[in-house]
Fold:
Amino acid sequence: MENLVNPVFTVTRADKERLLGQRGLVVWLYGLSGAGKSTLANELAAALHRAGRLALNLDGDVLRNGLNRGLGFTEQDRMENLRRAAEVARLALETGSVVLCSFITPLNTMRRMVREIIPANDLLDVYVRCSYSTCAARDVKGLYAKAKANTLANFTGKDSAFEEPDATPALLLDTDQWDVTECTRRLVGAVLAKVGA
Ligand code: ADP
Structure:
């Protein structure tokens, strides 16, 4: 019987990777709001572009305004938000792109789900670590002030849990300790080593 679920595509991921001269990879950046995920993903995207590498940015805020509009911040909605993001990343991987995913991904169950969707060989998980107090001092989007005033429900790190990873991430970037230049240097080095420098 014809297999309608898994069609066989004539042009494969390997063909596309050859065309681009790179290896596809999902870089999954996780950490508190304001830890530096989007900033570092942007720096990485610029460095990859300069190096002639094709990349796609998947940003939590952007997806929540489009594909994942309607989802909130309960644990169930966060899981669904991340499941869809990981599935999109997996599809984009088929183009041979480097997929830069910036999502808080607060719980270990969520990180495990990402690892179930993206094959281990294709995933570089990056913990963008920063203390709640530093993120609150930066308060890029004014969310920490709102959380302090109790006008924001389910805020990550306050009334919605953010767990320390229970598995060692491929890369840890401590943005409390290292500046943007140093974090970018480490990130770009790790990614180029995987996709082909
Ligand atoms: P997130 O995407 O994790 O919510 P953003 O990237 O939007 O966080 O904001 C992080 C803020 O912290 C930016 O204003 C950035 O300039 C600042 N920052 C300070 N040090 C660093 C660092 N080492 N890495 C990334 N961002 C940093």
Observations:
- The longest strand covers residues 123-129.
